[in-house]
Amino acid sequence: MALLQISEPGQTTAPHQHKLAVGIDLGTTNSLVASLKSGLAETLADTQGQHLLPSVVQFQAKDEIGYKTIVGQQAQDNAANDPLNTISSVKRYMGRGLEDIKKHSIYHFVSEEGSAVPRIRTVAGDVSAVEVSAEILKTLKQRAIESLGGELIGAVITVPAYFDDAQRQATKDAAKFAGLPVLRLINEPTAAAVAYGLDSGSEGIHVVYDLGGGTFDISILKLTKGVFEVLSTAGDSALGGDDLDHTIVDWMLAKTGIIEPDASLLRVLLDKARAAKEALTEQDTTLIQIHLDEKLHSQSDKQNSWQYELSREQFEQLIQPLIKKTLVPCRRALRDAHISVDEIQDVVLVGGSTRVPLVRQIVGDFFATQPLADIDPDKVVAIGAARQADVLAGNKSDEDMLLLDVTPLSLGLETMGGLAEKVIHRNTTIPVARAQDFTTFKDGQTAMAIHVVQGERELISDCRSLARFELRGIPPMVAGAARIRVTFQIDADGLLSVSAKEETSGVQSSIQVKPSYGLSDGEIETMLKDSFSHAQDDLDARKLREEQVEAKRVVEALLAALEEDGENLLSAQEQHTIQQAIDELSEIAEGSKQRAIKLKIEEVDKITAEFAQRRMDASINKALAGQRVNDLHT
Amino acid sequence: MHTLEQQYPENYFSLLGLPISFDIDKNLLIKNYHEIQKSIHPDNFANAGDRERRLSVQKAAQINDALNSLKNPLPRAIYLLSLFAIELSENKHVAPEFLMEQMELREALSQVNDKADPFAELDVLINDVNTRIKHSISQLSRLFECLLATESESKQDNIQQEQLELITVEVVKMQYLNRLQEECLNKEEDLAKQY
Fold it and tell me: I want to staple A534 with a disulfide (CB 3.0 to 4.6 A). Which of A304, A408, A538, B3 is the partner?
């Protein structure tokens, strides 16, 4: 029996208006934003009708108004004339240390005192990859606001499945700089599977082969009744279309005899290479013409123009080793998923680089099936992300869809002798929490250094350093008597957090996190303050607004929870207490005291803790209820 | 005497709606797991308060842990042993002959590179390891069936201890084999990168 729900005067009924949320594909070469429009997920165009935003940011010198950046096509067009201030393929530098990124880079990287994050020297100052990415996100955010006609409650941002913790954290930090709430980071292949899965509704095993501009991912998913379960994922976070371009550039350099091209020339050659690669998708041959202008002439004293014909066959010979390289992760993913090729229902192609005919051929041969590319491989990830954003925003659709994703890399700890001890294995479904016990090895030891690594190898030196933690405040005891339980948690965004507790004394040890390749909280704070597009007032106003949004979210969530379960799970007194707290929070959130709102939210959080716990237990019982009823009959 | 179910009402098997046993109905396991995740996964709480969000991450992690402990034979065996308060420590339980064999297998693995057809050689090795793992699984299935059958009847402590000892040895063996399998796969990847 349906009862009419009557809300109290002055309160909103359950928020039924469509909340604006977007999916963003923050790509190496191009970025996109998509949203659900009357039930259909589609990518949003700019005022010129362009959907793809080239992931290129040009930094300009400071004038009286402040720093200025140009993002997108125009920046791309300016790249050859201003190569050092125009940053492209910045995704390759996210969450990376200096030594990882030096090769193939034309930019001038500098490391800053007290920071683990390398900066690119530009005319606007030194900028980190996070800030460059933030500029792209800001542009997309603005495009979405204009296109959808309202503020966004948040975004789902996609990352390569094979991104490690530092790369994911860097992506989330970029969103923070862009003032864009992140509803969830999801993996690109998973997003693509959502876009396909919901359209075809096909149950079974699906492979997503995602070769983008700078990254390669392979994911194997099982789709059962609206549940997208990732069985395994593998890849190479430094292999993509960019590498195909570089291969062509190397070939051109060998042909022309130019030995050390400068940044401008390299930029020109890269553009030529990309154009040639794209032309060879349709044509059998393409003409590459290189003209060096006066400025560039010094590069070679003999000649200033060249002309070569590149055939598809030659091109395929050049790139074949790179494409074959992608089959190694494919094999690993199949093994990890315990799946053989004949069990696979279909293979979906994602990413612009899968347009290359040789890629389609090699993938088709390996999986013994004609790969699918029904949805534009450039747009499919953003479209899937938009669907998930809509679900997360609470715009419940009829399908009840659930994504169960995995962590791509094993998480380990350094033990004696430089060996890595795995705590969480790769392809474990997230969220996941694991505890590990440690003890002291010296009498009276009060601190302990813990080194967290990500990777599959036995030797620490072959794994990627993730973070170093220092546990302090361990009560002095004899060696081996302390029992320190360190809990590692990977949340639904794939991000790691760590907490520690000394068990015998119950002392909660303080923990100091030093991300090996990340921005520290302090750095983020300072950078936000110094940020070229935010004055201090701006920052305060933004903090207040964010706190108000959070308060509103808490109020709405609690009202919905009360409506749903208040009668069943709470006494009249408890209901009254919670209702009162909600009213107080609503009132304070109207004001302009950010700190007061924050404190009130924390207070409400404490008051409703028990209610939250009861709700969670009740839903587990309900989920298994059908099963329990069946048990009675047996 | 209490049964395991009575002793541990919150065990992973009951959390996922299964009876305590080494042989499991994997379809039922997955079905129940999906139902629970549909109701508590953090994606359902993206708009909820901070507390509920954190709680759902914890619960979802617990359910995932339960699934991971039960889905595959080795972790399932280790989890079952933990219900009998047995923590594994290596070396102690295993026969020297077994360790000898392991060393030989590892040696063979390290020499794969020098062979004329390293891939074929590696395949032979991987198949060998897989066969050994399968054998271990069937042993464990038999041993656990005995153990849990006597467990539910009147307990005879010395018999139970003997069975637990046999199981522990088998589980430690399987740990070695799984690690070797992993090393084989790493090797295959190295070889593939070299060609």
Answer: A538
Beta bridge pairs of residue A290:
A306
Lowest mean pLDDT among A182-196, A415-429, B130-144: A415-429
Please state whether the peptide bond connecting residue A189 to the residue before it is cis, i.e. omega within 30 degrees of 0.
no
* Residue B14, domain CATH: 1.10.287.110
Q: Which of A332, A377, A371 is nearest to A352 (CA)?
A: A377
Tokens describing residue A94: 């996210």
* Residue A552 CB neighbours (<10 A): 16
Is A100 catalytic? The answer is: no
- Residue in A434, A489, A624 nearest the CB of B35: A624
Give me B125's structure tokens. 């090795």
3-state SS, residue A485 = strand
Which of chain A's residues have a Cβ under 8 Å away from the Cβ of B75? none
Q: What is the pTM of this model?
A: 0.82
Q: Is the pLDDT of residue A476 over 50?
A: yes
CA distance A624 to A631: 11
> In angstroms, rounded to a whole number, what is the distance separating the alpha carbons of residues A26 and A95?
14
ipTM of the complex: 0.80
Tokens linked to A414: 């350094």
Q: Can A188 be counted among the known catalytic residues? A: yes
Compute and round to an integer the Cα radius of gyration of chain B: 21
Measure CB to CB from residue B55 to each of A394, A561, A612 and give the nearest one: A612
Q: With left for phi above 0 and alpha for psi between -120 and 50, is residue A483 left, alpha or beta? A: beta
C-alpha span between A156 and A172 (Å, rounded):
10
Q: Of the residues A46, A82, A91, A379, which is catalytic?
A: A91
Whether residues B117 and B65 share a domain: the answer is no
Q: How far apart are the C-alpha atoms of A319 and A35, rounded to whole Å?
A: 36
Contact A106, A268 (CB under 8 A): no
For residue A197, the Cα-to-chain-centroid distance in whole angstroms is 21
Amino acid in the structure at residue A378: D
**Domains recognised in chain A with CATH numbers:** 21-184 (3.30.420.40), 191-240+325-379 (3.30.420.40), 242-322 (3.90.640.10), 409-520 (2.60.34.10), 535-621 (1.20.1270.10)
- Give dist(CA A416, CA A435) in Å, integer: 19
Among the listed residues A586, A225, A208, A227, the one whose alpha carbon sits nearest the alpha carbon of residue A373: A208
Q: Identify whether residues B110 and B146 lie together within a single domain.
A: yes
Q: Which residue has the higher pLDDT, A534 or A94?
A: A94
* Domain span including residue B45: 4-71
Q: Which range (A68-72, A304-308, A525-529, A612-616) has the least confidence?
A: A525-529
Collapsing DSSP to helix, strand or coil, A86 comes out as: strand
Segment A427-441 mean pLDDT: 87
Asked whether the beta carbons of A34 and A44 are under 8 A apart, the reply is: yes
Question: DSSP code of A431?
Answer: S
Quickly state the pLDDT bin for A516 (edges 50, 70, 90): low
SS (H, E, C) A44-75: CCCCCCCCCEECEEEEEEEECCEEEEEECHHH
Among residues A423, A430, A447, A531, the alpha carbon closest in space to that of A128 is found at: A531
Q: How confident is the model at residue A532 (pLDDT cuts 50, 70, 90)?
A: very low
Catalytic residue among A82, A135, A164, A188: A188
B67 contacts in A (CB within 8 Å)? 429
pLDDT the model gives residue A5: 47
Q: In which residue are the tokens 């940020």 written?
A: A531
Contact between A69 and A60 (Cβ < 8 Å): yes
**Structural domain count of chain B:** 2
